[in-house]
Amino acid sequence: TISISSKNESEQDCISLLLACELGHAGCIKALLCSSNIKLDYRARESGNTAYHFCCLGRMASINDDDVMNNDNNVSALDTLMNHTPNSIRKRVLLLTNREGRNLTHIACARGDLLLLKCVIGHLSNVSSQMPWKALIAADRLLGHTPFISAVYAGKCEIIAHLLITRFPSADYSVLFSACPLTIAASNCDTAMAALLFEMGYDLQTTASSDISQIIRYDINRSLLELMLIRCGMDDGEEVDPDNYELIRILVANGANPHKTVSIRNQQKPKTRGDDTIAALDGEEDTPLSVAVMASDFHSIEC
Asked: What's the pLDDT band for 85 if we cut at 50, 70, 90?
């Protein structure tokens, strides 16, 4: 949230623009840009967010919100700001990141705001046909998440479906899956996301044919292990969502082996909710079944 304090006139104009963008006030944005010589790449000191970031964030929005608030205002604010952005700096400002290393597509994906994401991608495409993909495969500094993985982490299925059916020029879609989205979905106990990932980006068959595009493969056994680690970390008596057992069935049906040993301290895996439980384990590897036993989770064993 932006607050205006005593600043020199130039900096206060910049802060006023950030506030107008955060509130989604397109009229105020236009008036400020028409009346003042404002530095468009000015950043908020604590967050490093620019006016473009604040257009996407909005004051009431949170990456954990189920409902996207002020959707039209966010899009209108960003469109207004872009209309007053000189062509010479559009490429740079659209790819600017905040202190967490997040660009505009990170924010739109994490919010689950499809209209906003389409707006951002549209402006990126206006600069260059390659720009949207460049933004979408950029990893942030906080968790190493791309915008695609940010959407998986936040459980935004509509965003994932859109990104997988949109044809971006010269895009290698295997890059989207390299950060183990299924592992993250399993760790979040997100049955709907796991089902979507299997439906849109997975093939059980192997082939050597050059006519068939690269097959995306998930680390299914690790995904099952991560799900069991969440069970192990739950408090005694804590109620388990029945959908979680459905997720176990989905993983097993798609090839997960509860008896297969998995390296639990793999440095290449993404950060997940099960990491705290991993730190408490003694060994270097384990099976999903043995973790379920440690959690006294007989329902999972039955699955």
From this structure: very high
Distance CA 185, CA 48 (A): 29
For residues 188 and 209, give the distance between their C-alpha atoms in angstroms, rounded to a whole number.
36
Residue bearing tokens 């090839």: 255
Per-residue pLDDT at 7 exceeds 90: no
CA 261-252-276 angle, 5° bins: 50
Looking at residue 262, the DSSP 8-state letter turns out to be E
The per-residue pLDDT for range 257-282, each reduced to its tens digit, is 888 887 766 666 667 776 766 666 66
3-state secondary structure of 117: helix
User: How does DSSP classify residue 236?
Assistant: T
Q: Tell me the average pLDDT across 54-69.
A: 63
Distance of alpha carbon 15 from alpha carbon 7, whole angstroms: 9
Token pair recorded at residue 53: 């970031």
Q: What b-and-e string marks burial along 262-296, b requiring 16 or more CB atoms within 10 Å of the CB?
A: bebeeeebbebbbeebbeebeeeebbbbebbeebe
State the pTM of this model.
0.82
Distance (Å, whole) CA 209 – CA 202 = 17
